[in-house]
Structure formats: structure tokens, C-alpha cells
Amino acid sequence: MLKSKALWTLALGFMALHIALAALLPLVEDETYYALWASVPSAGYFDHPPMIAWWIAAGQAVLGDSPFAVRLLAVLASALLTFLTYRIAWLYSKDATTAFTAALWGKAMIPFSVLAFAATPDAPSVLFWTAAVWALAELTTSRNPNWWFAVGLFAALGILSKFTDLFFALAILLWLFASREGRTWLPRWQVWAGAALGLVILAPFALWNYQNDWIGLERQFGRVGAEGKFSLGGFVAFWAAFAMLVTPVLFWLAAKSLPSPKVPALLKWLIAPILIYMTGHALTSIAGGQWLVPIYPTLAVIAALGAAHARSARFAAPTGLALGVLIMVIGLWPGKILIDSHNPFTQMRGWDRVTQDIRTRMKTENASWIATDAYGLTGQLSYYFDPQTPVWSLTDPERYLFRGPAPAEICQEKGLLISRAPISEARADVKKITLGADMTRNDGPIVVMRYYTAIISGPTAQAAFNCAAP
Predict the structure, then answer these.
(1) Alpha-helix runs per DSSP H in 333-455
(2) Do residues 252 and 209 lie in contact, with contact meaning Cβ atoms separated by under 8 Å?
(3) What's the predicted TM-score (pTM) here?
(4) DSSP state of 228
């Protein structure tokens, strides 16, 4: 593997692209929110497990405060994913061409071609899921039971990245007890030692949740069992998004390859639980094709093992890469917004001007801090303003447990409230409020986002934070 010039060219070529995108493009909303997490690394957070915050903090410790620092480990993870995909396919095929095809097809998928630089929980989630698949491939091809320690390690790190990776643990359990091959491993002590290792790694996260009334599990697991109305449209939208992100030709090749005897049953076991659950979820609730991203590299391996020599295979990489380039061109088209909505592409535009306008407004109104009412805006403004300008949300206290009490001046001095929604004068979370003029975030003459403002003072007990003692 390490001697393959084609593989190194593929991995380093895309890494160079991702480094350029990571360094040149401003952070999107969610990235700034996770960067706020990283300012106070914790064993847990409300929305997701803590891995992405740890990654961002590590990148900033090495490179300082910059978009590339925030995204550093995501870029490195994407490069490592290429080698893991190659190795899994080679272990099951013993063929360098098939292995390279799997690595290439993995890179042709939208999340890994042009979007892999983004610092979101999906980056560590897909890396550790695929690393665990690799460990299982080494295990089943070498019959060395010590690989169970690597399986337990990577599975636990995946769960610390995103709760979606719990489906990997479920898949292993099902395979161990329900398949003939899996049951042959049950007597081996390494299986249980690997599981124990994973539980030890997860213990601090579990303890944090216990100490905080399991709030870290509340948001994601609140969806489980929630009743909804049957929606054929939502179901179709889920599968359409799934196929588009995998890219249509690769989606077809992966589906076509599933019955092939060349595809190990283990790979099918590993993708089955999450596919079945998300399909059922999409019938009654909103589900996104991106929720299945952890299995995309496995799908690339499945497609390569079963259909690398199919006629349509020659179109897989070119059409996938062309689709990725098209999405980026449409999203980043200069001087014009072609996708007019609150999306990652519009979230990156126009910050230099609006931050200057906010500073001017604060100086004019003698405001010393910024108040918000949405987590994304809290993240964006926290990132674009230095620590000397405190940014605190009046809502959703569960999102900000890691920050502790707010600075004392927030209770004593005026603040500028900024919101994407009209502001009501009848607010219970502040003692005094005076509505102000609207502000806009512009990309040249184009209004990207309108913000409503007010001058506030005296946060009350209904605000989402406690003030520190003066």
C-alpha cells in the first residue's frame, strides 16, 4: 500500500485541494459553534459528543487562531481515510487495482471530494467508523484476535465523535451473535477485552452526562420513538439526497454489488442497522442523506469489490468529481448567490463589513457586549470578535454549560442584541430593551442576511446564563 504511487498521488492531491479550501474559505455557522466549544474543552456538550471540539482545540494549539487551524485535523483525517479505504479493499480482494478503485471512488463522493475540509462531527465520525471497519477486516483476514483491541478503541472514539457511530457497535453485536462467522469469535477473551477498552474510553463522557442530568443525550435520543406522520415525500427526499451525496453512478454500483459473493458478509452486516433504521425514520420524520456519511467509504469498498469491472464503472469517478466541482462553483460563484437560502455557502459571505458595522453601533450606543438568541449566530459572532467583546446567548442555556457564568459586566452594562428574527419589546429575559435599526450582511450589493437589533440591559433570571459575581 505505502509503495503505491497512484494512491499517494490521490491522497496528497486531494489533501492539497482541501488545505487550500480550508485556508481560503471562511468558517460556516456550525464550524464557528464548534470552535466556541473548543475554547473550553469539555468531556461533553449538549448537541454532540466532544471529539470535534478536541480536534479544533488541537489544531489551534498548533497553528493558532485561523480557519485552517480549526479545520486542520479534518483535512488530515480525510487523507488518512483514503489509505484506510484502500487497505480494506485490498484485504478482501488482494488486488491493487480494486483497492485503488475503492479509494478513488471514496474520494469521488461529495462529502470527501470538495467538502472534506469542514470541521464538523462527521469528520472524526467517519474516520473512526472506517478505522473500525479496517480493524475488523484485518481481524477476519488474519484471524489474529488481538485486532479486537483496535476494534474497541476505534468504535469508542467514533461514539465520542457522533452518536451515529452507535450503529456500528450495534452492527458488531448483531454480527457476533446472529452470524455463524461472528459466533466463532465469542469464546475469545480478546472480544470482551476490546469491548471493555471501549467502555473505559467512554467512561468520562458517561460521567459528564450523569453529572449533567444526561443532557448530552437529550437532543439526539429525543428523536428515538418520536411519533410522526407518514411522509412519502420525506422518504423519497432522504434517498435522493443519499444517492446524490454518494453520487448517482456510485450509488448504483454499490447497490448492484450488495448481492455479489465477492463482497464479504461482514461489510453488509456493518451497514445494515443504520440503513434500516434511517429508512424507517425517513418514513415519519425528517432525515438527511448526510446522516449516513459514516458508511460511505464502506460503500465505496463494496462497489469496488463487486463492480470494479462493470461497464458503468468508468463513469463513476468522473461524474462524481464533476458533480462536486459543480456544487462548489454554484455555491461560491463570485458576486452572485445562486443558492438563495441560509446554507453553508451564504454563511461564509460578507463578514468583514458587518462586523465593522457592529463595532460602530456598539461604540455609538456605548454597548460593551453582544447578545444573541441562536446558537449559530452565537458561534459566528464569538469567532469574529475578540474575547474583549463578550458574546452570550439569551436562550438555550443547555448549549453553553461548558462556559460557566457570564462576565459580571453583562449584568451591569448595556449590550447589543442581534437576531435573525424580529425582536419583541416584551421580553422576560431582560429588564430594559430599546429596538434599533436593522443591519445587513452583504456580499457586494447583495443582501445575504438581515439582522434585527436592540439595546438591552439587566438580564433577568429568564436569561440563559448566570452572571459572575462583580
Answers:
(1) 344-347, 351-365, 375-384, 409-412
(2) no
(3) 0.94
(4) -
Q: Where are the domains of the chain?
A: 5-331, 349-459
Mean of all residue pLDDT scores within the chain: 92
Q: What are the angstrom distances between the C-alpha of 268 and each of 227, 265, 301?
A: 29, 5, 11
Single-letter amino acid code for the residue at 18: H
Distance CA 166, CA 187 (A): 23
Predicted confidence at residue 126, as pLDDT, reads 98
Which helix H or strand E contains 23, and what residues bound it?
Answer: helix 5-24
| Residue 176: C-alpha distances to residues 173, 260, 377 (Å) | 5, 22, 45
The SS3 call for residue 465 is coil
Query: All 3 cell numbers of residue 191?
Result: 472480544
Q: Determine the 3-state secondary structure of 112 from DSSP.
A: helix
Count helices and strands (H / E) in the chain. Answer: 21, 6
CB 454, CB 415: distance < 8 Å? no
CA 466/CA 411 separation, integer angstroms: 9
The SS3 of residue 67 is helix
Give rounded-to-5 percent helix, strand, coil for the chain. Answer: 65, 10, 30
Q: Tell the burial category of 210 from Cβ atoms under 10 Å away from its Cβ (0-12, 13-18, 19+).
A: exposed
Q: Where are the extended beta strands (E) located within 414-459?
A: 415-419, 430-435, 439-443, 446-459
Reported as type and span, the H/E element at residue 392 is: strand 391-393
With residue 269 as reference, give the H or E element that holds it: helix 265-284
Using DSSP, state whether 369 is helix, strand or coil.
strand
Dihedrals φ, ψ of 253, to 5°? -65, -40
Helix (H, G, I), strand (E, B) or coil at 144: coil
Residue with cell 465593522: 356
- Do 313 and 102 touch, CB atoms closer than 8 A? no
Under a CB-based contact definition with an 8 Å cutoff, are residues 132 and 124 in contact? no
Q: Which residues of the chain fall short of a pLDDT of 50?
A: none
